[in-house]
């Protein structure tokens, strides 16, 4: 594609909560790139094909994540200050990023996550118990989707879950506030909260992730206090916002595809395969995979110049028919482990193992324990996230009688 398609305003809203915009497929059929206009009038390239998205994820030198670069693409006005809060990990390149990532990966290995599985299972059962005891109807987001990942990341990071209402409110404000000023205020509240928590842990050391970072990284001079605050915030926000979106939207999608849900009900052991297919099908973090080009490079026959912004669309790539036959059909029997919902290459989501374990346990447990679960109102009446950083539902009213 040579840029002949009319420039489209970005983000492009989804017509259906679990399908990407139709223009993605149309543009992908014409060529690997098409132009989109950001909120500030700048034009960026949106990459639509699986092979190209995967290759550009891996090409971290020329496709930079550095949010301090003034040319870095910003899709929404509220995200103007994101660089202030996420530059300590996702907003770094090269050795700096590798060093920061190495400080975290040890707590997110398959072995470490397996040690958390009993806690995740107990917490899931506890939350479902409470929902069932309260009786139908219920909002699955507030009953399970939001508290579970919040409790798990709190346990791992070492944040008191008693404070969850505050940090969840601020995290959601940072990620979804309608204006940059409101997002900034929520971010500052999070900074102040995390700074105070670090001081408490300095006085009384702990062996959780935050306590370890304090003693092994901050006190040794590898991290400044400000860097540690922002690194911890990145883990806290990413650790529950994305998974919460997947629980809500994933449940909705399964309820809307009863033939696929029946596969899970018949074989709870299929839960992890279901998670992989839902991750591919939904791509809830599609708006977060942004890059700026550091030198002229050709992508699929199109010249992309240094300084131009690029959006690596995981939603478009994960619906590429060259990789996934009948890509718009939810098929929990397909092998979708190679989907790009968690990224690829140096910036692949560090918490992927944890997220997949949480989702596997949630979907496997929820539909085993509440087999009659169904939506309590029509799909088009359920409030959902529109034009926000992550795709998903604001509420998910369900019943089971």
UniProtKB/TrEMBL annotation:
An annotated Gene Ontology molecular function: iron ion binding
Superkingdom of the organism of origin: Bacteria
UniProt keyword list: Heme, Iron, Metal-binding, Monooxygenase, Oxidoreductase
Transmembrane helix is among the record's keywords: no
Membrane-spanning parts: none
Pathway, per record: Antibiotic biosynthesis; vancomycin biosynthesis
PANTHER family: CYTOCHROME P450 YJIB-RELATED, P450, PUTATIVE (EUROFUNG)-RELATED
Reported function: Involved in the coupling of aromatic side chains of the heptapeptide of vancomycin.
Similarity field: Belongs to the cytochrome P450 family.
Protein name: Cytochrome P450
Native source species: Amycolatopsis suaedae
């Amino acid at each position: 594609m040579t840029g002949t398609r009319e420039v489209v305003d970005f983000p492009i809203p989804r017509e259906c909560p679990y399908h990407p915009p139709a223009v993605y497929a149309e543009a992908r059929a014409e060529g690997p790139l098409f132009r989109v206009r950001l909120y500030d009038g700048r034009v960026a390239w949106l990459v639509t094909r699986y092979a190209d998205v995967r290759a550009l994820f891996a090409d971290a030198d020329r496709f930079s994540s550095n949010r301090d670069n003034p040319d870095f693409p910003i899709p929404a006005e509220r995200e103007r200050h994101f660089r202030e809060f996420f530059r300590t990990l996702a907003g770094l390149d090269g050795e700096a990023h590798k060093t920061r990532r190495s400080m975290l990966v040890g707590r997110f290995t398959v072995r470490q996550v397996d040690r958390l599985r009993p806690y995740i299972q107990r917490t899931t059962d506890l939350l479902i118990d409470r929902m069932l005891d309260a009786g139908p109807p219920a909002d699955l987001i507030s009953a399970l989707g939001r508290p579970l990942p919040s409790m798990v990341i709190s346990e791992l990071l070492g944040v008191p879950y008693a404070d969850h209402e505050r940090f969840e409110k601020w995290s959601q404000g940072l990620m979804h506030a309608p204006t940059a000023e409101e997002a900034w205020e929520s971010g500052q509240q999070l900074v102040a909260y995390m700074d105070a928590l670090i001081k408490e842990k300095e006085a009384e050391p702990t062996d959780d992730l935050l306590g370890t970072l304090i003693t092994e990284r901050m006190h040794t001079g590898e991290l400044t206090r400000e860097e540690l605050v922002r690194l911890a915030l990145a883990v806290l926000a990413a650790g529950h916002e994305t998974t919460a979106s997947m629980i809500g939207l994933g449940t909705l999608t399964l309820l809307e595809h009863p033939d696929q849900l029946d596969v899970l009900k018949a074989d709870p052991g299929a839960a992890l395969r279901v998670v992989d297919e839902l991750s591919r099908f939904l791509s809830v973090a599609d708006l977060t995979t942004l890059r700026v080009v550091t030198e002229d490079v050709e992508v699929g026959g199109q010249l992309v110049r240094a300084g131009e912004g690029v959006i690596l669309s995981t939603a478009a790539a994960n619906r590429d028919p060259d990789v996934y036959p009948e890509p718009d059909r939810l098929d929990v029997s397909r092998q979708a482990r190679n989907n790009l919902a968690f990224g690829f290459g140096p910036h692949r989501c560090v918490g992927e193992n944890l997220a997949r374990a949480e989702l596997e346990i949630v979907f496997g447990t929820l539909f085993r324990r509440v087999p009659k679960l169904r939506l309590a109102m029509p799909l088009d009446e359920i409030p959902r996230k529109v034009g926000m950083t992550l795709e998903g539902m604001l509420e998910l009213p369900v019943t089971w009688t």
